[in-house]
Amino acid sequence: MVLFSLASGWAEALAPLPLLATAHAVREFAIASAIFTSTDFWAGMAAGLVAAFVASVVARKRIRAARHEADDARAAARQLDYERDLAQQALVQKLEQERELSKEKMQFESQLTEFEKYASFTQLALGAAHEVNNPLLGILSHLELEMRSASGDHRTEVEQCIEGARRISSAVHGLLDYARPGPLALSQVSLPQLVTDALRFVEHQPLFRGIQLQNCVPLDLPEITADANQLSQILMNLLLNAAQATPSGGSITVLAEKMRFENVIELRIRDTGTGIPEDIQTHVFEPFFTTKRGRGTGLGLSITRNYVRRHGGEIHLNSFPGHGTTVCVSLPIYQAHQLEPVSTEVIA
Predict the structure, then answer these.
(1) What is the pairing mode between strands 212-216 and 251-258?
(2) Strand, helix or coil at 216?
(3) What is the pLDDT of residues 59-85, one digit of tens each?
(4) Given its phi and psi angles, is residue 332 left (phi above 0), alpha (psi -120 to 50 degrees) or beta?
(5) Domains plus CATH for the chain?
(6) CA 47 – CA 49 distance, rounded (Å)
(7) What's the rounded Cα separation, in Å, for the pair 338 and 94?
(8) d(CA 346, CA 292)
(9) How far apart, in whole angstroms, are the C-alpha atoms of residue 163 and residue 157?
(10) Which helix (H) or strand (E) holds 225?
């Protein structure tokens, strides 16, 4: 019993010591044990057992300490991984925010440039109306009077002058329409009826000969609140552009649908014409930009976009050279000041 108590005390004392020091201590303990008891065989056996017991106790404590250290190391590694993941998520969020800010900045700069252009063209249009239109009316009146008595080559020259003067007058009126459009005369407009009337008007025009016109606008579309004259001009401009790009034997299709779960109608004019090269698609709505040299002022699509935006809508196009063009016009069913009725749309 005395040896057991002594061994337990030695085990507690030897636990923090290195293994070599422990071995020496165990050996000294065994020698001391032998001296303390006797030198016979059983005393030596007891001393060996005690020494083995002490060594096992020391080993178990060291293994337990090593496990605690390993657990602490794993916990520290998990904490580092967690902090690293948080840092990566914060970095990704910051990059996304910077990307969104950069995108908004580019959009703002683009809108600012467009507004500056608009202001410049407004001043130009007003000046042109004063400086050009009034004298032009006098020139046209004189040429029309001279036309009555002209004949032969002289009559041809007068006709050419009248045609040129009318083109100038058309450009001036286009500038005025672009820079200072009149107020919206809002009314309830039936889009199917408007499209039907427009196609019926143009189908006998020389520009549309040999082109198949297709009306695919459903009759059950809701009426929209809009300026009927401006909406008609939007449609006519887009039909004329489509016809100028479509060769004989091609087709022009007018489609429309109500956007699901939105009070918006999308009108699409699709042609099978030559298409628009990708490098100029971003410029087609700019004032005075045209690919029809000698035919047109380059204001048709600019005025069209201006009218669309005055109604709170948007316009864009999809075009592939050699495969035609589709122009999409999105128009709200109700204007901003109107109260919208409760939607009765049901998911199919």
Answers:
(1) parallel
(2) strand
(3) 888 888 888 888 888 888 888 888 888
(4) beta
(5) 116-176 (no CATH), 184-332 (3.30.565.10)
(6) 5
(7) 40
(8) 46
(9) 10
(10) strand 224-227
Task: List the alpha helices (DSSP H) in 129-216.
Answer: 134-149, 152-179, 191-202
What are the start-end ranges of the H helices in the chain? Answer: 2-14, 19-36, 41-128, 134-149, 152-179, 191-202, 228-245, 300-310
pLDDT in tens, 296-319: 666 778 888 888 988 999 999 998
Q: What are phi and psi of 316, to 5 degrees?
A: -155, 170
Neighbours of 312 (CB within 10 A): 14
34-71 burial, b at 16+ Cβ within 10 Å, e below that, comes to beeeeeeeebeebbeebbebbbebbeeeeeeeeeeeee
Tokens 């061994």 belong to residue: 7
First to last CA, the chain: 90
Model confidence over 9-54: pLDDT tens digits?
544 544 444 544 555 555 555 555 555 445 556 676 777 787 777 7
DSSP collapsed to 3 states, 288-304: CCCCCCCCCCCCHHHHH
Measured at the CA of 215, the angle between CA 214 and CA 221, to 5 degrees, comes to 160
Q: Residue length, the chain?
A: 348
Structure tokens at 55: 């060594």
Return all residues near 35 (Cβ < 8 A) that are at least 6 apart.
none
> Which residue shows structure tokens 């006709």?
159
Residue among 276, 272, 305 at smallest CA distance from 291? 276
Q: Facing residues of 332 across strands?
A: 264
- Which long-range contacts link 169-173 to residues 24+ away (Cβ below 8 Å)? 169/133, 169/136, 169/137, 169/140, 170/297, 171/297, 171/299, 172/125, 172/128, 172/129, 172/132, 172/133, 172/136, 173/133
Q: Please compute, for residue 148, the number of CA atoms within 13 A of its CA located in the half-sphere on the CB side.
A: 5
Q: Which of 286, 198, 283, 278 is nearest to 242 (CA)?
A: 198
Rounded CA separation 235/331 (Å): 12
Q: In what order do the strands lie in the sheet with 212-216?
A: 212-216, 251-258, 264-271, 324-332, 314-320
